[in-house]
Amino acid sequence: MVPSYSQFTTSRNLLYSYLHIKPPSGSEGNYILFLHGFPSSSGDWHHQIKYFSKKGYGIVAPDLLGYGGTAKPLDVESYKIKAMAQDISEILQHEKISKAIGVAHDWGSYLLSRLANFHPSLFTKYVFVDIGYTPPGFGLSLQTVNYVNAQVKSAMGYEVFGYFLFFQESDAAKLLDQHVCSLGDRKGFHH
User: Fold this and answer.
1) CATH code for the domain defined by 5-139
2) Single pTM value for the model
């Protein structure tokens, strides 16, 4: 069975697409919010969604701004993390979800960190996969990126943040547009 996606337009007039599976009757407070990373969509959580929904948890898994079936505004200001945290909060409020366990991966962890700061009353627990909680004002400097890349390349043979440097190149947007399929085949149950 392929779950269906809901849509909600936030107060910023941005359309979000998200998977919403209600928990079985009598367990209304048991929700998990899944926030994906880059380059990804909510479909990357399909194994976890299947597992936890069978265990009786309700699920909300949005395609985050710029991904999947959600709006892809061209204005960089639209992607400010505090505003995106408000968007997710509005989705939960719209679905009448007062408490959830927040589970996030990669760049989704940054968003979950801001949800923890700006909307802590919405969460009972936080799970950060791959990247931990990031305090406000923390950023990765070029020096830090180069250091981490060198350490990981030495230990594992590749650079984990190589794409950070690629995105700074003048032709990165053009190359990504020309080769959008190379960002990965997003399998799972996304539309």
Assistant:
1) 3.40.50.1820
2) 0.81
